[in-house]
Amino acid sequence: MSINTPVYYKSPQTLIGRFIMKQSIRGGVFWALIIGAYVASKAIGFSKAYPTQISRDKIAANFGSNTGLSALLGRPHGISTVAGYAQWNTIGVVVIILAIWALLLSTKTFRGAEESGRWEILLAGQTTARKAAVNALVGLLATMLIIYVIVAACFVLIGKDQAVNIGVGPALYFALASVIGGALFISVGALTSQFMPTRSRAAGAAATIFGIFFLVRAMADVTTLNWLYYFTPLGWIEKLQPLYKPQPIWLLPLLALILFLSYLSVYLAGRRDMGDSIIAEKTSVKSSNKLLGSPLSASIRLNRGNTLSWIAAVLLVSIFYGLLTKSAAQAFMQTSAVHGVNKLLQTNSSSASILYLGIVFFLLMVLIMSYSASALGRIREEEAQGYLDNYLVRPVSRYKWLSGRILMVFSIIILMGLASSIGTWAGVFSQHSGASFHSIFIAGFNILPPSFLTVGIGAIALGFMPRLTSILAYGAIGWSFLIQMVSSGINLNHWILDTSIVHHIELAPAVSPNWRSNFIILVLGVSLCVIGAIKFNRRDLANE
Amino acid sequence: MDDALIIKNLSKKYGKFFALSSLDLTVKKGEVFGYLGPNGAGKTTTIRAILGLIKPSSGSALVFGVDSQKNKVEAHKKIAYIPGEATFWPGLTGKETLLLLGKIHGKVDLSYQAELVKRFKFDTSKKVRTYSKGNRQKINIIAALMTRADLLIMDEPTTGLDPIMEQAFRQSVLEAKANKQTVFLSSHILEEVEALCDRVGILRAGKLVELGTLSEMRHLSALTVQATFEAAPPKVDHIKGVSDVKIIGHELICQVRGPIAPLLSVLVAAKPKSLLSREPSLEELFLSLYGDKEVRNLDSDNVD
Ligand SMILES: Nc1ncnc2c1ncn2[C@@H]1O[C@H](COP(=O)(O)OP(=O)(O)OP(=O)(O)O)[C@@H](O)[C@H]1O
Ligand SMILES: [Mg+2]
C-alpha cells in the first residue's frame, strides 16, 4: 500500500475564527439591515413629520425635558435638527438590541460550545486554548465589523436624503457609535463565559452587567448626577454624540475596555482547564428530592432560576419607569409632542402621565414577549439536547409533556402581567402621580395577548420546523417592533400593519383596552399552540 | 401471549432512502435477542421506531400485544430502554436523576436499585456534568434495570464501560433473564452477544439478512479448516465448496461449505503436520455476512 501525500488545508491557525464568523454572519446581517431600516424610518419620518424649523423646535422643547424618554433613550441633544433627533431616538434602541444579541452570541460561542463539548473538538486541532479564544474573539469581532459596514452603508444612504442631509463622515461615525456597544458585549460575554460553568449562567451574568450599565446610565440621564456617566460604558456611548457636537474622545475608554476584557478572557482561557470555569461548580452536592416527581415539576425545578430572573427583570423595569411617571408627564403637555407619541401607540389620548404609562406598558409588553420567545426556545432546546428522550421513552405522552410546558409558560406570562402592574403602580404611587391602581392593573393584563400569540408562533414552529423555533418566535417580535416603530414615522399599508402582532393592542392606560381584539389574539395564540402540539405529537423527534 | 415484541412490516424512509425496509421480527417472551448489523444498518432506527420517538413510514410494533405507536404510554409501561449515549440534565446529581427517572417510569425495585448502584460502583452524589462517560452510561443502565420492566430494549448499552463493569452488566442481563424478562440487545460487542443471546438477527442496509439461534447459524455457515505442512500446502482452490483460501508460509486456512470429504482427501494426501477444523465464531459469521471485502483484503495485504 502506498502512502498518499496528505492534503494540507490553508491556514489552520485561523480556522476557528473563520468558522465562528461564518456561523454568526447571517444573524449579523439580519440585525444590521433591521437597524438600517429602523434608523431610516426615524430620520426620514422626523424630517417629513416636522418639515419646518418651528415645528422641530416645538417638539424639541417638549421631548427635551421628558425624563421618561431620557431614561430609555438617553439625554437629548440638539433634537431640533434631524441629525440630533435621529441620534437621540435611535442609538439608545440600537445599542440595546445589538448588546443583547452580542452577549447571547458570545456566551453561546464560548461557554455554550464548551459545555456541549464542541469546543474540545476544535481545540484538539493545531491550536491552544488561548489561540482558540483569540480566534473566536476575532471571528465574532469580524462579524461586528461586517455589521458596521452594512449599518454605515445604510446611514450614508440615509444621509444623502435631501431632508435628512447627514455627511459621509458623520454617518460613518454615527454607525460606529451604534455598533461599538455590540463589540463591547462580545467581550463581556467572552469574559463571563470564562467565569461561569454553563451557558445560561454566563448569559445571565452578561445580561446582569448590561442591566447595571443601563440603569446607571438611565440614572445619569434623569438626574443631575452627571458623574454617573463615567461609571457606565453605555454612558460613554451616549457621550459620543456622533451627530450633534461630537465627542469622539469617548471612543478611547470604550476601545480600551473592549481590549482589556478581551485580553482578560484570553488570559483566563489559557489558565483554566477545558470545561472548567473560574467560578467552579461543586462536584459533590447534597441531593434534594424536591420537585422531581413528574416531568412538569422537574421542569419547574430546572427552569426556576431563569424564570425568576425574568420576573425580576419585569418587576425592576416597571418600578423604574413607574418612578419616572410624574417628571415624564410634565414634559408631555404640548400637543405636538403628544401627537408623536400618540402615533407610536396608535392612540389619541391627552393626559400626559397616562400617555407616558402607555409607552411604559409598550416596553413591558415587548419584554414579556421576549420571555415567551425565550421560553419556547428552551422547550425546543430540551428536545434538541436529548433530555426529552428521557421522558418520552418512559410512560409520558408527548401531549402531556408539551401542554404542561406551555401552560407553565402561560402562567408565568400572567405572573409577569401582575408583576408589571404591581411594579409600575409601586413606582407611580410612591410619586403620588395620578393614575389609579385599577387602570394600571388592567393595563398589565392588557399587554399579555401578544405574548400568548408569540408562544403560539413558537409552538407552530416547534411542530412544523423545530429547528427554527427560536428564530421564528424572536423574529415575530422583531418584525412587530420594527413595524410599530416604522409606522410611527411613515404611513404603512394596513395589510403590513396587520402582520404586527402588537398592532391590535390598544395600549392601556393611554386608551381603553379593546377586549374584543385582545380575546381574538388570545384565541389565535391558543389555537396555534393546539395545532403545533398536534403536529409535534406526530413528528419524529429532532435531536441536534 | 408468548411474544414480547412483534414487529410487522416496519419501514422508515428518510426522503427516498430506506433506513429500514419492511422488517418482520418476533421476540419471544423471556428470550434474550441479539440485534446486530454494521454501522448505519438501521438498528437504532428500529429501536426509536418501536419506542415511538420516530414515526415509522409503515408497519407497527406490538409490545405484549400493545401497539407501541397508537398507545405509547401503555406500551412504555412495559419497556425499559438503555440508549448508547446518555444526555441527562447536567445540573442534577446521579441520585436525583435516578429518582426522577424512576418516578416517571412509575415502578422501581428500590432494593435492586441499591444493589445495582453497588454492583456498578456508581457514586450517586455527583452532578451529572462531572461524571465520566462510562459513569454517565451507568445511570442509563441502572435506571432501566431497576424498573424490572418486562421488556428491556438496549442499544449498545455497554459503550464506555470498562471490562469489570461489562461483566457486571452481563450478570445483570442474566439476572433479568432468570427473572423472565425479555431482552432486545443491539450491540457491536459480539462476545457479549455470544455470551448472552438465545437468538440473533442480523440487519444489513435496513433489511434482516439472518435470523436464528447461534448454533443454527453456525450450521448454515462455513467450517474453518486449518492445516500445517512440512512443505508448501497443496492447491485446494478448485475443490467444490472451498473458499477464502489463505496461505501463510506452510500453513493453510480455508472455509468449506457442504461436504468436507473432497477437501480432506487432498489435505491428507499432502501429509499434514496438524489439522484443525472448527465452527466459525460469531465474529467470523458476522464478517462473512457483512459485505466484508475490505476486511479480508486487509488481511491478505498483511500476508503479502
Ligand atoms: N434523521 C435522519 N435523517 C436521515 N437519515 C437518517 C436519519 N437518522 C438515521 N438516518 C440514516 O438511517 C440509517 C440507519 O441509521 P441507524 O442509526 O439506525 O444505524 P445503526 O444501525 O444504529 O448504526 P450504528 O451501528 O452506527 O449505531 C443510516 O444510514 C442513517 O444515516
Ligand atoms: Mg445505532
Number of separate strands of chain A: 0
- How would you state the average pLDDT of chain B, rounded? 88
User: Can you tell me the overall shape of chain A?
Assistant: globular
What is the oligomeric state here? heterodimer
- Number of distinct beta strands of chain B: 14
Measure the end-to-end span of chain B: 57 Å
Total domains of chain B: 2
Can you tell me the number of structural domains of chain A?
A: 2
Elements of chain A, N to C (H/E) = HHHHHHHHHHHHHHHHHHHHH
Order of helices and strands of chain B: EEEHEEHEHHHEHEHEEHEEEHEHH
Q: Could you describe the largest sheet of chain A, including whether it forms a barrel?
A: none
Task: Note the beta-strand portion of chain B.
Answer: 25-35%
Task: Indicate the CATH architecture of the largest domain in chain B.
Answer: 3-Layer(aba) Sandwich
Query: What ligands does this structure carry?
Result: adenosine-5'-triphosphate, magnesium ion
* CATH-level-4 superfamily name of the largest domain in chain B: P-loop containing nucleotide triphosphate hydrolases
Helix content of chain A: over 70%
**Rounded to an integer, what's the Rg of chain B over CA atoms?**
23 Å
Q: Termini distance of chain A?
A: 38 Å
Radius of gyration of chain A: 24 Å
Biggest sheet, spatial arrangement of strands of chain B = 6-7-8-3-9-10
Protein structure class of chain B: alpha/beta
